[in-house]
Amino acid sequence: MSNDKKMVNMVKPLIGDEEINAVVEVLRSGMLAQGPKVAEFEKSFADYIGVKHAIAVSSGTTALHIALLACGIKEGDEVVTTPFSFIASANCAVYAGAVPVFADINPETYNISAAEVARALDAAVQHRVKAIIPVHLYGLPAEMDKILELARRYRIAVIEDAAQAHGAEIKGRKIGSFGDAACFSFYATKNMMTGEGGMITTNRDDVADQAKMLRSHGMRVRYRHEMLGYNFRMTDIAGAIGSAQLPKLDEANRRRIENAAYLSERLVGHFVVPFVPEGYKHVFHQYTIRLPEGLDREKVRARLKEEGFGSEVYYPIPIHLQATFMGESGKGRFPKSEEAAQQVLSLPIHPAVEKEDLDRMAEVLLSF
Ligand SMILES: *Cc1c(COP(=O)(O)O)cnc(C)c1O
Known about the structure:
Blueprint: H1 17-29, H2 36-49, E1 53-57, H3 60-70, E2 78-81, H4 88-95, E3 99-102, H5 114-122, E4 129-133, H6 144-154, E5 157-161, E6 169-170, E7 173-174, E8 181-185, E9 198-202, H7 205-215, E10 219-221, E11 224-225, H8 236-267, E12 280-281, E13 287-290, H9 297-306, H10 335-343, E14 344-347, H11 355-366
Parallel strand pairs: 2-3, 2-4, 4-5, 5-8
Antiparallel strand pairs: 1-9, 6-7, 6-12, 8-9, 10-11, 13-14
Bound molecules: pyridoxal-5'-phosphate.
């Protein structure tokens, strides 16, 4: 094939006149810091998720950091999370002075396994575990019913990492409304974006109050600092982009779901395609297949690239094997996550990808 054909990349943020005009309006107003545009975005996001409060912050990472602190996580506590995620899912525990305790994934869903969480909670130091952070990886909700039951039994908090799951649902209920708090990211590549940005959603008044203080130097009243806080505020520029993006989210997710189903139809039987449990709405932040053992992933990626298709590995190194956690010495501790890290491959299915792109992509993959 020729070299001038279009490249289908992993990401293409949807930026229309709505976003551009919204940003221009904020710039013309001359008021750029957190203000009315952020407040407007918080209100519409809370309504969309179906929660009492939404607190906008500077990133998904700062959302997680603040949410843990607002839920009372402190020095010496332990926090159970998955080793198969973006590193922020575990780093946030460290920021709060706590220690992440990993629980392996269910290899079918790639999400933390409630059975493994139960095992971690039953282990010797259980009295120090104060929270569970389930990650809705790739846009597929984690098994929240079982996780919430464990949290109730052990009286610990649940903080959802919903950075990849805007609009995902379990039985019609939106992700972001299940835990004591949930954290979203609006990084440029997510299902909706503000460039950089994040949001904490919660039904708890006390958590919302603490989160608002923590994002702005511990202030309720100007220049009276009641506690140690940070500058994790969102700008009104980002807030305006968010308000323009949110009304487009459902249609963008519908396109992702449609593309995912179309591609799965073509790949099933040859590759392990994404699994969606009954009653779950997967919003396909990533469409991720598992390659058969022995197939060289880098070779597949190189062929896809030659044919004009981006692909990516989320994530090639599980968190426990990273240098700031167990490093090499952690090898073999969480075998399901380690195996997934070796075998997964994510393919572009975002709203701008067309059916004929998917046909060609499937053709390339089936040639292996
Ligand atoms: C993107 C992401 C984050 C961090 O969000 P940022 O906005 O990039 O800080 C956290 N957890 C997961 C699972 C993510 O994908």
